[in-house]
Amino acid sequence: MIYAPYILLFIVLIILLSSFVTVKQGTIAVVTIFGKYRRQLQPGLSFKIPLIEKIQSKISIQNRSVELSFQAVTQDQANVYFKAMLLYSVLNHDEETIKNVAFKFVDSSNLMQALIRTIEGSIRAYVATQKQANVLAQRNEIVDHVKHQIDQVLESWGYHLQDLQLNDITFDEEIMRSMSRVVASNNLKAAAENEGQALLITKTKGAEADGNAIKIAAAAEREAAQLRGQGIALFRAEVAHGMTKAAQEMEQANLDISVILFTMWTESIKHFAENSDGNVIFLDGSTEGMNKTMKEMMAMQLDKTKK
Q1: Which of 212, 193, 190 is nearest to 201 (CA)?
Q2: How many other C-beta atoms are found inside a 10 Å radius of the C-beta of residue 74?
Q3: For 256-288, how does the pLDDT look when each residue is reduced to its tens digit (9 = 90+)?
Q4: Concatenated DSSP letters for 276-288?
Q5: How many independent structural domains does the chain possess?
Q6: pLDDT in tens, 79-104
């Protein structure tokens, strides 16, 4: 039996090597002795008692995600279909937490089943109190409700819900079509109201512009009439002033004032002739007509003098 020492040495070497355990980063190893929890091993190279201590499980402390697809019924009996993403992780590295994670469930599939059903039940209970018209606008409320409801349950299991995202919320095809029609009709209504408001604003602004234009034109016409009246008044005043001055000079020269009237008469006839532009003007050019006109003008002048 010369090989017996070598065999024994080989067995001791195998047992010694098996006492060294490597734990990956982000993982904690749970060690048991004869099936009872003993301790936990942190990431890195660790030592365990050969043949006595056993690695019961390796627990990942990294974030884990799972996708959910389930159905719920609203208060008004509408079917709602959810697609969600669940993000969860181990609560902390405490010994009691690790023991809960390692021994609460037989395996990870049982954990996932309980976790998914718990979240589905919480969402269904909330949706059952809401009407289908409100569900789409309450994504955040649903998530907050689920977190509030199941945080204590998950902590008792050693887990924490990091995030719950409701990626897709749909209804039955008939409801989706009716919702599309409602949205389309609301859009048409809003468009019609906007067009009506735009037309009203356009017509109002147009009426205001027309009114302002009429006001401006009336003000301009009034100002022009005032200026014309002032011009005529000034012209008449200048004519009266000139005639007065001419009459005074005629009296100082001992001349008859009727010469002024005669001059005005002849100038008027000349002006008519130059500016008639082809129109026919009938004037009594006889000596009797001139004498008659002169007498009338003299009479008007004497009447003004008396006044």
Answers
A1: 193
A2: 19
A3: 666 666 677 677 777 766 766 666 666 666 667
A4: -TT-------SHH
A5: 4
A6: 888 888 888 888 888 888 888 888 88
For residue 255, the tally of other CB atoms under 10 A from its CB is: 12
- Which of 87, 68, 82 lies closest to 164 in space, CA to CA? 87
Q: Which residue has the tokens 């008396």?
A: 306
pTM given for the model: 0.51
Reduce the secondary structure of 152-200 to three states and give it as a string. Answer: HHHHHHCEEEEEEEEEEEEECHHHHHHHHHHHHHHHHHHHHHHHHHHHH
**Which residue range forms the structural domain that includes residue 8?**
4-60
Which residues are CB-neighbours of 84 under 8 A, at least 6 positions away?
67, 68, 69, 119, 123, 164, 165, 166, 167
Angle between helices 258-275 and 173-252 (to 10 degrees): 140
- What are 306's two structure tokens? 């008396």
User: pLDDT averaged over the chain?
Assistant: 79
The answer to whether residues 248 and 198 belong to one domain is yes
Residue 188 lies in a domain: no
CA dist 286 → 103, 242, 299 (Å)? 145, 29, 20
Q: Residue with structure tokens 């000139």?
A: 242
Residue with tokens 């929890």: 37
Q: Which residues, other chains included, contact 274 with Cβ-Cβ below 8 Å and sequence gap of 6+?
A: none
- Taking 60 as the threshold, does the pLDDT of residue 1 lie above it? no
